[in-house]
Each structure stands twice: as structure tokens, then as C-alpha cells.
Amino acid sequence: MPGRRWQDTAANHGAGLPDGAPARNRAGESLMRVRLAALALALSLWVSGHGGPAAFAQQPIEFGDAYTIQSETLGEARTINVWVPPHADEDPRAPYRVLYLIDGGTQQDWFHITGLAQLGALSWTFEPMVVVGIETDDRQNELTPQASDERYVAEFPTSGDAEAFRAFLTDEVKPFVKANFPVRDESALIGESLAGLFVADTYLTSPDAFDDYLAISPSLWWDDKALGVEAARLMAAHDYEGKRLFIAAADEGGTMQDAIDQLYGAAVEAGVEVHFDDLSATETHATIFHQAALRAFRRLYAEPPYDYGPTPWYLIEGGEPKPAQD
Q1: Where is this region: Disordered (predicted)?
Q2: Which of 16, 213, 256, 321 is the residue whose CA sits 20 to 30 A from 104?
Q3: E strand or H helix at 144, and its extent?
Q4: Would you tell me the crossing angle of helices 288-300 and 110-123 to the nearest 10 degrees?
Q5: Coil, strand or helix: which one is 69?
Q6: 15-19, 40-44, 114-118 — which is least confidently predicted?
Q7: Better pLDDT: 296 or 122
Q8: Rounded to two decimals, what is the model's pTM?
Q9: 229, containing H or E segment
Q10: Burial 278-300, CB ≥16 within 10 A → b, else e
Q11: 274 three-state secondary structure
């Protein structure tokens, strides 16, 4: 490199060297470079042979597949993620129920909720299901119904387009899933916080869209508790035969808890199937989703205990293996 050729600059012209300093030995420097190169090569080979970084090949971990849907309803391209239980073509339990996860992007709730579905398929404790994660963008816009209270419109100026987002889900995402994956007609909708509000709103206004509705800590404070206040009237206008509602609440309290109580009370009064988990003693708004989802899956989709056969001898106190047969 220019300015670094010591034998031609510093050595020959004395630049940067004290007066009387001897010129550098060109042959000696060449030998030193050879020795350093040999040492570097030997070190590289040693690291490779002893489990250093060079011994590993890197590849991404895959957990489902992402698809882009050009939505006519929303007027833009949107991403959905899909996970199918392994060996679906050999599984007698296929085709599967579909779990539609709101806030289902990879930087949202995709991995931890889909991980629970993978646990169900692996452990046979609850039925396997296809998970479809719908990634949200402007959550205030996409997950809230139009507010009638102007205070909420002023506080959340982009809000109120839940109906359009629901149409995207039912008219575009569901047909795509039905046409491309091993699924049956039964489906569930799950979400937490504002996504839980969207689940409750869909249950009350469009119950035919899904079979099961899992609303985890739903933000029913929205629009001065409007959905809680109107729950009984809305439910009277629809048929809920074959529909199930699961509600879980953390320690939020206040107007949110008031509206959750109103929704649950209306469901009980209407005689529909409703499940309520009060997790306020152990969970906060930030921690409830994973725990509540697992409880919901075990309650709604439980499978008979797996038959492991006779207890092996090594799990019995004082047990002995059977004698070898001649």
C-alpha cells in the first residue's frame, strides 16, 4: 500500500527514522513475512480442527412460511405466516382446525403462540392445528371499531378500521388458507390486548366468521366500554349455536375489568358457551398471553391422554427387567 513500503521510503530516505539509523534489511523482512503467514495458516487449521467458528455452517432456523397477499380490501400487500404440523400427509388427525392469530408477525406473537401449537402436536395433550399469523401494521387503525365517543377519536386519530381488517381476514386470508393447506372448516380467532378487543368485536358483530373466539386481556376500555355496554343487545341479534368464547383477564382492573365483566355476564345470561379465566392474581397485561393461550388450548382442544402402554420396570420401585428369552 502507498506509504507503507518501508524499504523504499523510510529505509532509503530516512523518513521518520533517527539520524544514523540503519536501513531495514529487505531479505530479513521477507523471511519474517513468510514466518508470520505460516503461523497464521497453522493457527487457522488448529481452530478449524478444535471446534472453532470455522467448523460450523450457519443456516437460518425455519418455523413456518411467510406469504404475501395483495389485498384488494386494504389496497396493499400484507404478510401472513403459516405453520402446519409436521408429517401432515401421514397424520390421521389431518385435516386440522385453523388458529388465526392476530398480531401474528415474527416480531409480534408468532413464535411463542405457534410454539404452543407445536407443543400440542408433539405431546398429544391437545389437538394439532394449523396456525395462521396475520401481521398487523397500524394496530390502532386495524383492530379498533369506529368510536362514537369523540374523546377517543381525538386521542387515537387513526383508529376505527376494524371492519375493513376483518373483511381482509374473512374474504381474502381464509379462502387462501382453505385452498392451500390441510385444513377443515373449524377455525378459531385469538388475540391479546387490542387484538383481544378485535376478537371480542368480531364475536359480537360477526359470529359466523369463526367457531371459537379467544380474547386474552381484551382492551374493552375502548370507546368508554362500548362493547361491554352493548354486549347483551348485540348477542340478542345473532345465533351463537356452536360458537365458543374464551376470555382471560390479568390484573388490569378499572374500566377494562368492568367491560370484561359486562361481556362475560351478557354471555352467561344469553346461555352461550363461555369460559372465563381470572388470572389477576398471577399475571399482568404484559405476561398473560402465553399462559392464558396454553390454558385455552388445553380446555377447548384437549385430547384423550396418550396411551404409553404398561409402565416400564425402571419406573417401578424395585422393578426388574424381564429375563431374556432363550
Answers
A1: 1-23
A2: 256
A3: none
A4: 30
A5: strand
A6: 15-19
A7: 296
A8: 0.81
A9: helix 222-236
A10: ebbeebebeebbbbbbbbbbeeb
A11: strand
